[in-house]
Design brief:
Blueprint: E1 3-7, H1 10-21, H2 26-40, E2 50-57, E3 62-68, E4 87-88, E5 95-96, H3 114-125, H4 130-133, H5 135-143, E6 145-146, H6 149-156, H7 166-170, H8 174-180, E7 193-194, H9 197-209, H10 213-216, H11 218-229, H12 236-241, E8 245-247, E9 250-254, E10 257-261, H13 268-278, H14 291-311, H15 322-325, H16 328-339, E11 355-362, E12 367-373, E13 419-423, E14 426-432, H17 438-451, H18 457-462, E15 466-468, E16 473-475, H19 481-489, E17 494-496, E18 509-513, E19 519-523, E20 530-534
Parallel strand pairs: 16-17
Antiparallel strand pairs: 1-11, 1-20, 2-3, 2-12, 3-8, 4-5, 6-7, 9-10, 10-13, 11-12, 13-14, 14-18, 15-16, 18-19
Helix pairs in contact: 1-2, 2-5, 5-9, 13-14, 13-16, 13-17, 14-16, 14-19
Length: 535
């Protein structure tokens, strides 16, 4: 077995597995698969997006993060939207505007980080040429792929009150509508061939000139001119000055194992806090999906989210006490309060977003876990370039002086948690998920299912799932009604969903390596899911 690739898009997984089969490393496969994801799910991720990546290099033991978060443009002012907010979404309290300024269009865009992040990743770790690894994505964009049910559902699914629907998003700019709508003026149907020739041209140029072209070359000029002409807060200088960040992951422990995940403004510390709280609970003594099991997990989630809401931010702009969040003393304090029946309350819950994830592991023991996203996409496409930009401005607080208030150059908080669990210095679990703050819940339960309930990777990402930030306990339809009633008697306000595999519960992806070195992958059926082995 040469390796395994796990992600929501089967054809992207195929692209990565083909690189492994041809002798490439996990790093090479991850880059090829990530760019293929941009074509398979062009509103989930893309050149106009952002992300965070954890890697493990087996020959040196080097384990690090490459963070390529989107950053607010230089023209942003902290108080510029304060007076125009018309309310908040019922979930998360996102600010609403009559003109959708933070959700759609040029004003919703932050400086993209994806090309720079993957460019640095290639420079640091990949063995195959940059242009070679972009070819699968170029081929998919040029020849087309069938429209998948999941991609189409992104445009047609339920939306919150005050948030535009998928058709409105696609029509946010004339160029986006031209490219992403069927020539008949409708959405593409499932199975119809969907081509992105302009995207292919842009990727071909990047393949020849390198990622720097996006920030300081001919592509940068086209992008900057378009953004400037249409009222974006992102400037040519923002593009030229953009740099991804490299550093160590945050680290905690669970059941005697080492857990490493993404630092702020991502939510790896929140995940680690949940695990370390649950380290005080013998979860394996409870039947899976029992009220006792779900009660313990929900209260740990709520406790860590209470700390996340109070403390998480961009450490370059606001004090972020990461050591407090991942301290064992903090976990012990919460564990004691939870055992006394406390569920920390909060009025905030974060909705899912258009994001994707990728895990790769190879026979040498190299590993990658990367989450990248467009937010939910601004619906803006620069004429001739084919890709859409992020709409990350919607995730800032429009009120100045707060932890997540907008400022030039600032990154917003995110639920992304590309994670690895280590034993004896080597990864045994590689995990991650797309979908807003529910990412944290999905990755948490996947890890618990593997470590506490001895599940296979496929089982771990398939069984019933919950989410709790303190306000409500959200449970999939597959959680039995009798268990729901027990949870209610324990004091939980339960939202029992009608879907057995709810998209808004996030889509977990995991690779598990057993004591004999055998690797197995699991891809969440909530998003279709792709697992590709290379032999």
């Amino acid at each position: 077995m040469k390796g395994v690739v796990v992600c929501p898009q089967p054809r992207a997984a195929d692209a990565g597995a083909a690189v492994l089969k041809d002798g490439g490393t996990a790093f090479d496969a991850a880059l090829a698969a990530a760019f293929a994801q941009m074509i398979c799910d062009p509103f989930m991720c893309g050149l106009g997006g952002m992300g965070t990546l954890q890697y493990f290099r087996s020959d040196t033991g080097d384990n690090g993060m490459i963070d390529f978060h989107a950053r607010a443009g230089a023209k942003v002012k902290p108080d510029m939207w304060e007076a125009d907010c018309t309310g908040r979404t019922p979930v998360s309290g996102y600010s609403l505007f009559d003109d959708f300024r933070s959700e759609l269009g040029y004003t919703s865009i932050m400086t993209p980080g994806t090309p720079a992040g993957f460019g640095l990743f290639h420079q640091m770790l990949c063995s195959r040429p940059w242009d070679e690894l972009l070819q699968p994505a170029i081929k998919y964009a040029r020849k087309g792929l069938p429209m998948t049910p999941y991609t189409r559902r992104v445009w047609t699914r339920y939306r919150m009150e005050g948030i535009p629907d998928g058709m409105t998003r696609i029509k946010a700019s004339d160029e986006c509508a031209r490219i992403y709508m069927h020539p008949e003026g409708r959405l593409y149907d499932e199975g119809e061939l969907f081509k992105l020739p302009d995207y292919a041209d842009t990727l071909e140029q990047l393949a020849k000139t390198g990622p720097d072209d996006f920030y300081r070359g001919d592509l940068a000029k086209i992008i900057a001119d378009d953004l400037a002409a249409n009222g974006s807060y992102v400037t040519a200088e923002d593009l030229a000055d953009y740099k991804p960040q490299v550093g160590p992951p945050v680290e905690g422990h669970y059941r005697g194992l080492t857990v490493r995940s993404s630092p702020p403004p991502s939510s790896g510390a929140t995940l680690i806090e949940m695990l370390q709280i649950l380290d005080h609970v013998d979860l394996g003594s409870f039947p899976h999906t029992s009220a006792e099991h779900l009660d313990s997990v929900a209260r740990a989630m709520a406790a860590a989210h209470a700390d996340r809401n109070e403390h998480l931010g961009d450490p370059a702009f606001t004090e972020t006490p990461t050591e407090l969040l991942i301290s064992k003393d903090r976990a012990a304090m919460w564990a004691k309060r939870i055992k006394n029946g406390e569920t920390p309350g909060t009025s905030q819950e974060a909705p899912p977003s258009c994001t994707t994830h990728l895990c790769v592991y190879d026979e040498q023991g190299n590993a990658v876990s990367v989450t990248h996203t467009l937010g939910t996409s601004s619906g803006v496409t620069t004429p001739g370039l084919g890709f859409t930009y992020n709409n990350s401005m919607k995730l800032f607080d429009p009120i100045p002086g707060r932890r997540n208030s907008m400022e030039p150059g600032k990154a917003r908080t995110t639920g992304m948690v590309p994670t690895m669990v280590f034993k004896g210095g080597k990864p045994i679990v590689i995990a991650g998920a797309p979908g807003g703050s529910v990412i944290i819940s999905a990755v948490l339960q996947t890890i618990l299912n593997v470590l506490d309930f001895s599940m296979s990777p496929v089982e771990a990402v398939t069984v019933p799932r919950i989410h709790c930030e303190g306000k409500d306990l959200h449970a999939e339809a597959t959680v039995p009604l009798a268990v729901i009633r027990e949870l209610e008697t324990m004091g939980h306000a339960v939202n029992h969903k009608h879907e057995s595999f709810a998209m808004d519960m996030s889509m977990a992806h995991v690779i598990v390596i057993d004591k004999d070195g055998i690797m197995q992958g699991g891809a969440d059926p909530r998003a279709g899911g792709g697992v590709a082995y290379s032999r």
